[in-house]
Design goal:
Strand content of chain B: 15-25%
Order of helices and strands of chain A: HH
Number of helices of chain B: 18
Largest sheet of chain B: 7 strands, mixed
Radius of gyration of chain A: 36 Å
Shape of chain B: elongated
Helix content of chain B: 25-40%
Low-confidence stretches of chain B: none
Mean pLDDT of chain A: 85
Number of strands of chain B: 21
Number of strands of chain A: 0
Oligomer: heterodimer
Low-confidence stretches of chain A: none
Distance between the termini of chain B: 130 Å
Strand content of chain A: under 5%
Structural class of chain A: mainly alpha
Structural class of chain B: alpha+beta
């Protein structure tokens, strides 16, 4: 009797163990797959942000170039001063 | 009987399985392994960016912009769709109608090729990529890349050089800083080998191998953007005003040899270099030589003073008229002669006969060694690609007439950078400095500063002070005195050198120049301005000198230098 009970208990534990491991495996596979997807998304987002950042930096560099500032100043009617008076 | 037939069948079946397994696992193992690797692993290249080139204040002179290479997979695109695709792409990519026709033809040829992968167009900007993406056409793809971006356009073109593809299709710098520092600026592409799942997504716990990309190093130049703008603006106006074929200007810090500004015209746009003639690519300030003319007199006179061959008050006893030498006649530029003139007045009046006297007093041996010590005959080692150094003829080949003409800057060739470096030594207590474009090389982990380098002491501190005093008087009392800014002590010398053409000098074609430094007592800058064949006037005093003083006025304001007189 006790042997029967013992072997039934062992069988149940084993079945639970296998089911638990199966569930853990499903969870791990799902997590790594979706993480892989998230990683890909983050990588793509990083690329887009880096690209936008560089484009903005270039726009700033272009706008702050002295040649462009000078032509904008000229179009606004600003002129070079004719002389400087030094005040002692 | 039936059982034995079944048994035999099962044995044969098992044998077949074993043989098939042997075939897959032993015979085809390598092929299947490589196929599995292709499925399980993704190899990708990670672009490295080329290093930026920065002005002294950290603002960008050359940067990079993200671009894309458009490619097609001809075997994926249906033959009946290719014409329509070529038409759509040509419309988006072409600048004008004529280009659209040629481009469509070219694209169609590529789409019809018997290749798995074919590049269609490179250097597409993100906006164009988005438009092509919106077409949602299967069989097209993009590869990331970068291309050079010059926010200042054609400004500083000769300093920069440009980037083009070499024979291997790799971005390489040519001319200027891009060429000289190509090794530092060039990045190293990274390679990543990543384990992926069946959807092509990365497995975060999977194997990841490879090397990270190494971006190119940034270079911070000594070039001051404001000073660069000032000289370029002044030269552009000067070329128009004086009707010159070209112009150059260089500004150095005489104490360090740092190049604060350098400009040459005509120039080109390094971002669109292929649209310009190759003749424009070379930087004349370092690559072209010229006969310096009277600006050279200050160097010869400083040599004579340093050797005590003459003193400022020494009288010239051959200056009462033209000098005949070896079948040649040496005259002054204006045919005016000053008997018993002092050495100071020789410089003030730019007297050729006085310089012949001074040159003879030093003698050929000593004069030749001073020429070498001032850096003639050798490159200055400035960090720009394509520097030239005209040869100094061997001393043994010099005749008496060569000594005479060299003393007033004819019959001898220098580059503008050699000239300004030599005059810079007069402003720096006699010490010749090595000129430098780059101040700092910045890597991802740390930076390296390029320190000033003293080449040698050419003349003594006392001689430098004496020649400076003479040059100040040359500016105050010489033929360019009318243009000098009031209240400032400027040391300088005009030069008008006739250009040698087919064995003789053309009297109507000159290199008009002015070289000087200021403030004379504590020089902040040394500058050379040069016009190539000005037509309104051939003289340096009427072209290069006014431009020099105009730039100097602006530099005094910029550097907050108050008048001293």
């Amino acid at each position: 009797m006790s042997n029967d009970w013992y072997s039934k208990k062992t069988a149940v534990i084993c079945i639970f163990g296998v089911v638990a491991l199966l569930l853990i495996q499903i969870w791990v596979v799902h997590t790594t797959t979706t993480s892989g997807e998230k990683l890909k998304e983050i990588e793509n987002l990083q690329k887009v942000i880096t690209l936008k950042n560089q484009m903005l930096e270039n726009e700033i560099a272009y706008a702050s170039a002295l040649t462009n500032i000078a032509s904008q100043a000229a179009s606004l009617g600003l002129k070079t001063p004719k002389g400087i008076q030094y005040i002692r | 009987m039936r059982i034995s037939i079944l048994r035999n069948f099962l044995i044969l079946f098992l044998l077949a399985i074993i043989l098939r397994l042997f075939y897959w696992q032993a015979v085809s193992a390598e092929k299947l392994q490589s196929k599995a690797e292709t499925q399980h692993f993704q190899n990708s290249l990670v672009q490295a960016t080329r290093g930026r080139i920065l002005f002294s204040d950290g603002s960008a002179l050359a940067s990079y912009r993200p671009t894309f290479l458009l490619y097609a997979l001809p075997k994926v695109i249906k033959p009946e769709d290719r014409v329509d695709l070529a038409t759509k792409l040509a419309k988006l990519l072409a600048q004008n109608q004529k280009e659209e026709m040629d481009l469509k033809k070219d694209l169609l040829e590529k789409l019809n090729s018997d290749l798995f992968w074919v590049p269609l167009q490179k250097n597409l900007d993100p906006e164009l990529k988005r438009k092509i993406d919106d077409l949602k056409i299967e069989g097209l793809g993009f590869e990331d890349g970068t291309s050079r971006f010059y926010p200042e356009g054609s400004s500083s073109a000769h300093i920069l050089g440009f980037v083009a593809q070499d024979a291997n299709g790799e971005d390489t710098g040519y001319f200027g800083v891009e060429g000289f520092y190509n090794g530092e600026l060039k990045g190293i592409i990274g390679k990543i080998r990543q384990e992926i799942d069946s959807l092509g997504l990365p497995i975060i716990v999977g194997r990841l191998l490879g090397t990270s990309p190494r971006n190119g190093k940034d270079l911070r130049l000594n070039i001051d953007p404001s000073v660069q703008f000032i000289i370029e603006d002044s030269l552009k106006k000067g070329i128009e005003k004086y009707g010159a074929m070209g112009a150059e200007a260089i500004v150095l810090d005489p104490k360090t040899g740092n190049v604060l500004a350098m400009a040459s015209f005509p120039n080109y746009d390094p971002g669109k270099f292929s649209g310009f003639s190759k003749d424009f690519y070379k930087n004349p300030a370092v690559a072209n030589s010229y006969e310096p003319g009277s600006t050279f007199k200050v160097l010869i006179m400083s040599a004579a003073l340093n050797e005590n061959a003459v003193k400022p008050e020494t009288k010239c006893d051959v200056c009462s008229g033209p000098i005949s030498l070896g079948g040649f006649t040496i005259r002054t530029w204006n045919n005016k002669y000053y008997p018993d003139t002092s050495m100071t007045d020789v410089i003030i009046h730019s007297d050729n006969t006085g310089m012949v006297f001074a040159g003879k007093k030093i003698g050929l041996d000593k004069l030749y060694s001073y020429l070498e010590n001032f850096g003639l005959g050798k490159p200055t080692n400035i960090d720009l690609q394509d520097e030239a150094a005209p040869d100094l003829r061997p001393k043994e080949s010099w005749r008496e007439i060569d000594l005479a003409t060299a003393s007033f800057g004819q019959g001898i060739a220098v580059t503008p950078i050699q000239m300004i470096t030599a005059v810079g030594s007069l402003a720096n207590e006699g010490k010749l400095m090595e000129p430098h474009m780059v101040a700092e090389i910045k890597a991802e982990k740390g930076s390296f500063e390029i320190k000033p380098k003293i080449v040698r002491e050419v003349i003594s501190k006392e001689t430098a002070k004496t020649i400076t005093g003479i040059m100040v008087r040359a500016v105050d009392e010489g033929e360019a005195k009318w243009a000098k800014p009031k209240g400032f002590k400027i040391a300088g010398k005009t030069g008008t050198a006739q250009i040698p053409i087919a064995g003789h000098y053309d009297p109507n074609k000159t290199i008009a120049s002015f070289v000087g430094f200021a403030p004379a007592d504590n020089p902040k800058f040394v500058m050379l301005v040069l016009y190539n064949q000005p037509s309104s006037s051939i003289f340096g005093s009427e072209t290069a000198a006014p431009t020099f003083f105009e730039i100097a006025k602006q530099l005094f304001i910029y550097y907050k230098i108050a008048p001293s007189e």
